[in-house]
Amino acid sequence: MRVAEPHEKRRLVANTLASTLAQLSALAIGFALAPILIRAFGVHAYGAYMLVASVAAFTLLLDFGLGPAVEKLLSEYLAAGRPADAGALLASVTAAYAGVGVLVLLVDLALAAAATRVFHLEVAELSLMRALLWVAGVSALAWWPLSVGVRALGGLQLYTHAAMVSAGVAVGTAVAAVTVVLTHRGPLALAVASNVITLVGAALMLAIARGELAARGVPAARPSRAALGAALAFSGSWRCRCSTTTPTGCCSACSWAAWR
Predict the structure, then answer these.
(1) Average pLDDT over residues 154-173
(2) Chain centroid offset of residue 170 CA
(3) Residue 17: which pLDDT band, with cuts at 50, 70 and 90?
(4) How big, in percent rounded to 5, are the helix, strand and coil portions of the chain?
(5) What is the dihedral of CA 59, 23, 30, 182, to 10 degrees?
(6) Which of 3, 108, 50, 22 is nearest to 248 (CA)?
(7) What is the DSSP letter of 184?
(8) pLDDT for position 11
(9) Predicted pLDDT of residue 138
């Protein structure tokens, strides 16, 4: 049985602490902001905001386990000296995630169109919900393919990098929330701001991952059925454990801001 080297133990401890602190900070910020946002937006508007956050959280189930598959398979490919397979894996999952983004957009638009029949809300809240669903759908279209970055960082065992960016996103969202409250803007303004912040964070993690992958000799590749099939084969027994959302919508269990 191989004994972990001291530097591997230190990296494991650092990764665990960083991930834990990032999740706890997101939860703490969410709990602190909840009463502030309720007071500023009103109970009904805040309820509509959180209802859309719940819808966004449920769409994470469309990952189908591909995220964990990327982390495991990427780590295995790099350890086995198979950079071409690693590149094909990332390209294939990115293409699949782009398709998921389109699907989520269509789901959100369908819910917006059928809001009067699906949700029992007042006219003002229904109008707000439609706008929030549009924002969530458009954001999902960009976020899903960008989210390969955080999974790639996991496969590279660079959880500290992902945690630092995630913490920055949480702080940025908190600043945006306070700014929206102080300027007397509504939930829609917060939704747009927090979505932009999260997309920037996802793009930054993808850029970091690409730089690290290039340094390890992983080439850019085209999507392939074989690579996607390998990811789906691994993900078959995986089930989403996403269950924790904060008042700002951070889905810490999946490392994604569900209501960005």
Answers:
(1) 90
(2) 12
(3) confident
(4) 80, 0, 20
(5) -100
(6) 50
(7) T
(8) 63
(9) 96
In the chain, the largest separation of any two C-alpha atoms, in whole Å, equals 65
β 256-257/250-251 pair status:
antiparallel
Instruction: Output the six-digit token pair for 152.
Output: 């790639």
* Total residue length of the chain: 260
Q: Could you tell me if 41 and 210 are in contact, meaning their C-beta atoms sit under 8 angstroms apart?
A: no
Residue whose C-alpha is closest to residue 181's, from 31, 42, 52: 42
Are 92 and 223 a contacting pair, CB within 8 Å? yes
- Quote the tokens at residue 252: 């810490």
Pull the structure tokens for residue 19: 């991930």
Tokens found for residue 125: 């809240």
Q: What's the average model confidence in pLDDT over 230-255?
A: 52
> 171 — alpha (psi -120 to 50), left (phi > 0) or beta?
alpha
Give buried/exposed letters for 153-192 (b at 16+ CB in 10 A, else e).
Answer: bbbbbbbbbbbbbbbebbebbbebbeebbeeeeebbebbb
